[in-house]
Amino acid sequence: MTGAAEATGGPGTNAPEDRPAAMSIGALAAATGVSVRSLRYYEQQGLLESERSAAGHRRFAPGSAERVILIQHLFAAGLSSRTIAPMLPCMVDASLRTPLLIEDLRAHRDRLEREIRRQQETVRILDQVIGAYRQSPTVEA
């Protein structure tokens, strides 16, 4: 194809009208249900990238909504932004995936399971204390 055909947006080109529009931070917040403040934090932590318009406004790529939702899932799983940052590229680009990613996620899952067992033991102990308290006579001060 010649340069002229490409410039006019001919077949196979990625002319501006063919590309999905970038989103403002407000549109991304509305699309994901995540606050503008959180999106700025994600960007500051290196979890999310944006470009700036001529006026200095953030413009997010069309795939950013899916990335934000993935970030939200990882936060909900108990991962910190410091842990998520090096994992995220491997999670969104299959060509970057390594066995280390799975090992890291499994290690986090194992830590969560240990914490759950500790919490369950704490609940069991509290139930014993509550049971003992209910059976004891009231002490007057």
From TrEMBL:
PROSITE patterns: HTH_MERR_1, HTH_MERR_2. It comes from the Bacteria. Residues 102-129 form a coiled coil. Residues 22-90 form the HTH merR-type domain. Pfam families: MerR_1. Keywords: Coiled coil, DNA-binding. GO terms for molecular function: DNA binding; DNA-binding transcription factor activity. InterPro entries: DNA-bd_dom_put_sf, MerR-type_HTH_dom, MerR_fam. The keyword DNA-binding applies. This is Transcriptional regulator. It comes from Sediminivirga luteola.
